[in-house]
Each structure stands twice: as C-alpha cells, then as structure tokens.
Write a structure and sequence with these properties.
The structure is a single chain. Helices cover 26% and strands 26% of the residues. It is an alpha/beta fold and 223 residues long. It has 2 domains: 170 residues, Lysozyme-like, CATH 3.40.80.10; 47 residues, no CATH class. The strands form 3 sheets. It has a 7-stranded mixed β-sheet, with helices on both faces. A 3-stranded antiparallel β-sheet has the order 8-9-10. Strands 11-12 form a two-stranded antiparallel ribbon. Helix 3 packs across helix 5. The chain is elongated, with a radius of gyration of 20 Å. 31% of the residues are buried. Bound molecules: zinc ion. The site of zinc ion has 4 residues, from loops. Zinc ion binds next to loops. Belongs to the N-acetylmuramoyl-L-alanine amidase 2 family. This is N-acetylmuramoyl-L-alanine amidase.
C-alpha cells in the first residue's frame, strides 16, 4: 500500500478545510457509503465543484493506497457532532474506508494503516472510535449487521494483531524516477506535490557543486 498526501486547499468550498488546530486523541473509522468510489475518487470529490456538503475527512484508504487529504494536525468534519471543543470533529482523525473493488484487501490495508498510526502515537485500540460513537450514525456500516457490531470487533482485533506482531509497514509517498537531460540520476519520492530527491545527484548532473554546511544545516549549490 502506498501512503500519499494530497491536501485540499484551505479555501476549499463549504469550509471543508477550516484549518482549526487539532491535537488528536482518537482515530475514527468510517465507510464511504459509496460502493463504487476509490480513494482517488473520494479525494477528488472534496474539491469537486458540484459537492455542496460541509463534510470532509483526513485519510481515505482503498485496496491500493491511502491518501491524506487534510493534515492530521487540523480538524475535519466527519463525526457529525458539531464543532465544540472535545467533539469528534475537533479531536479525532477521520479515516474513510472505501467500499469498491477488493474489500478484503481494502480492510486489511485500513487495519495496517490504523495500526501504524496507533504505533506512531504509542496508542492502543482503545483509541479507536466508530462514527457511530460520536453521532449515532450507523457508520462504518459494513461493520454492522443484524443489530450487531460484529465487524467492528473483528476490525479492532485485526488492528490489535498487527500492532502486536509488527505488521504495520506503510510506504510513504509515491516512488518516482528523477532524470536530468534524459538520464536517470536518482530515485525520488513524490508527496503532496513535492518531489524529495538527493540534492547532490541532481546538482552534480547539472554541473554544479554541492557543499553541505553541517553547522547551519544548509545545502549550498553553486554553478
Ligand atoms: Zn462515517
């Protein structure tokens, strides 16, 4: 699974990215409620001109990738419980699980992603919430059936298993090839519109010299 950032602009319509600072204390799980959309589709929908809903989320995941659409240090409107301090909307990272394609693979990716996020924060599965916990909406609806949240329990167990067995590898960014004058000089990683690549490889291929000043942590490129 690839993890990439593609942030919606802060001026996005319907106040979908209000950029209120957030120190998250939980992670909230959703299903998209759309059986045919991919993660890329959901990301596009956030900036689609015909979308008139004040609803957003932080991360959406499908069978091949996870896309971070709003920085995790800002709030998103996903919990349906208003904007009070301490609400799900103001304190929880919203993760949307896609319903299209290979759902078993998507669910496994979601569990890996969430386990990696818990691990990074030193949290356990007690930090996980359903959308239902904030507003009573039956969401993530694919984890609910016959009046029971059996799928939710199973999901938390899957996350817990990955957390305890270390199965939490997530590749950050998209690997890209960096060419200078048609010749490959380095590998890079594309993340939120910026390519990260070794400065030296690119500069030297262009005939420049590179000096690193450790004291000021500066890369000086001269030609
Ligand atoms: Zn939801």
């Amino acid at each position: 699974m690839i993890y990439r950032k593609d942030y919606i602009p802060s001026k996005t319509a319907c106040n979908r990215r209000p950029a209120l600072a957030m120190t998250a204390t939980t992670i909230t799980i959703h299903n998209t409620g759309n059986p045919s959309s991919t993660a890329a589709n959901e990301r596009s929908w956030l900036t689609n001109d015909t979308n008139n809903r004040q609803a957003s989320f932080h991360i959406v995941v499908d069978s091949k990738e996870a896309i971070e659409c709003i920085p995790l240090t800002e709030n998103a409107w996903h919990a349906g419980d208003g904007s009070k301090v301490g609400s799900g909307n103001r304190s929880s990272i919203g993760v949307e699980i896609c319903e299209s394609g290979d759902y078993a693979k998507t669910l496994d990716n979601a569990a890996t992603l969430v386990a990696s996020m818990l691990k990074e924060r030193g949290w356990g599965v007690d930090r996980l919430r359903r959308h239902f916990d904030w507003s009573g909406k039956i969401c993530p609806h694919l984890m609910y059936g016959s009046g029971k949240w059996t799928g939710w329990t199973a999901f938390k167990n899957m996350v817990d298993y990955k957390l305890k067995t270390g199965g939490v590898a997530v590749n950050k960014g998209v690997k890209v090839t960096v060419n200078v004058n048609g010749k490959k000089v380095a590998d890079g990683v594309l993340d939120n519109g910026t390519t990260y690549t070794p400065a030296r490889a690119v500069a030297e291929a262009l005939g420049a010299t590179v000096v690193y000043d450790a004291e000021t942590k500066t890369v000086n490129i001269t030609k």
